[in-house]
Design brief:
The chain contains eleven helices and twelve strands. The protein is α/β, with parallel strands linked by helices. The protein folds into two domains: about 5-100 and about 230-265, Leucine Dehydrogenase, chain A, domain 1 (Rossmann fold, 3-Layer(aba) Sandwich), CATH 3.40.50.10860; about 105-230, Rossmann fold, CATH 3.40.50. The strands form two sheets. It has a six-stranded mixed beta sheet with strand order 2-1-3-5-6-4, sandwiched between helices. The longest helix is centred in the last third of the chain and has 15 residues, at about 230-245. The mean pLDDT is about 95. Bound molecules: NADPH dihydro-nicotinamide-adenine-dinucleotide phosphate. NADPH dihydro-nicotinamide-adenine-dinucleotide phosphate binds near residues 62, 124, 125, 146 and 150.
Length: about 260
């Protein structure tokens, strides 16, 4: 029987761990599927490309999550609210869109107890979906960002927002790097003078970047703070996407037991 086909669309996409994660879970759970990667250069061609490749489902990474949103016929209410889709399933010729980044992130930080206040360094697309789910769950999220422009929509939705120039530090339980600073360079997500004010009082410091120790995590460790990188967020968003891909046939725990092997290879 022909395999059911899945893929990740992105640009770049060669670095993605998603094919390994999903294929290990397909093999381990004996699901007749195959997951590949596709370099999508032009986001507006997403829907056409999806059908031309005969896919059943995709994940979408940078920079196409808004194009993915536009391509969907039916949106999950949370994806609709945050305007970003990272998982699409085809059912009877229609594309259904979901956001699994935010619930994946929420689960990844759930290990930290007695957390109420959170400082986000950064205000991009990932900050948008994760800040929304955190607020729904009762956390108090403040954002600081390099440029003022990106903060506008957060301010309009009622978040406390600062640029580097007008920041008024206070104590935050978690400080989280939501920027791409440190991903392909050695930069900090905010000036060191600001980080020196917020890191020492934090219960823990988290980075959404995975697979390396960023300058932000190195600085947090130097202050003796517990740290966590973005690997669990990646794993959990993948497990939740896999649940959609396989129509909730497997439990979270069963999928995790296979998918997490991608981080040991
Ligand atoms: P966006 O491009 O939407 O936003 C980037 C953000 O980073 C902006 O706030 C930008 O600020 C800021 N920024 C970039 N470079 C610097 C710098 N040198 N100094 C200070 N601020 C900087 O990106 P995303 O929100 O999509 O992604 C953010 C990060 O999240 C990426 O590193 C990505 O890899 C990671 N990620 C991890 C996932 C996981 O599963 N672990 C899932 C999804 C994303 P400005 O407005 O000033 O430009």
């Amino acid at each position: 029987m022909a395999k059911t086909l899945f893929a990740i669309f992105g640009n770049p996409v060669s670095h993605s761990k998603s094919p390994l994660m999903h294929n290990l879970a397909f093999q381990g759970l004996d699901f007749n599927g195959c997951y590949t990667r596709y370099l999508l250069e032009e986001g507006t061609t997403l829907k056409k490309t999806f059908f031309a490749l005969g896919l059943k489902g995709i994940n979408i990474t940078v920079p196409h999550k808004e194009h993915a949103y536009d391509a969907c016929d039916i949106l999950d209410p949370f994806a609709k609210k945050v305007g970003a889709v990272n998982t699409i399933i085809e059912k009877e010729g229609k594309l259904y869109g979901y956001n699994t980044d935010a619930p994946g992130f929420l689960k990844a930080i759930s290990e930290f107890e007695a957390v109420k206040t959170i400082l986000f360094l950064g205000a991009g697309g990932t900050a948008q979906s994760t800040s929304s789910i955190l607020r729904d769950e009762g956390y108090d999220v403040t954002l600081i960002n390099r440029s003022a422009g990106r903060l506008e929509k957060f301010k309009k939705s009622g978040f406390k927002t600062y640029t580097f120039d007008n920041f008024e530090p206070c104590t935050y339980d978690l400080v989280i790097n939501m920027t791409s600073a440190g991903l392909e360079d050695e930069s900090l997500p905010a000036p060191k003078e600001i980080l020196d004010k917020v890191i020492p009082g934090a219960k823990a410091c988290v980075d959404v970047i995975y697979g390396k120790e960023t300058p932000f995590l190195a600085l947090s460790k130097a202050y003796g703070r517990p740290t966590k990188d973005g690997s669990d967020m990646l794993l959990y968003q993948g497990i939740i996407a896999f649940e959609y891909f396989t129509d909730h046939r497997y439990t979270f725990t069963d999928i995790k037991s296979h998918m997490q092997n991608a981080f040991r290879l």
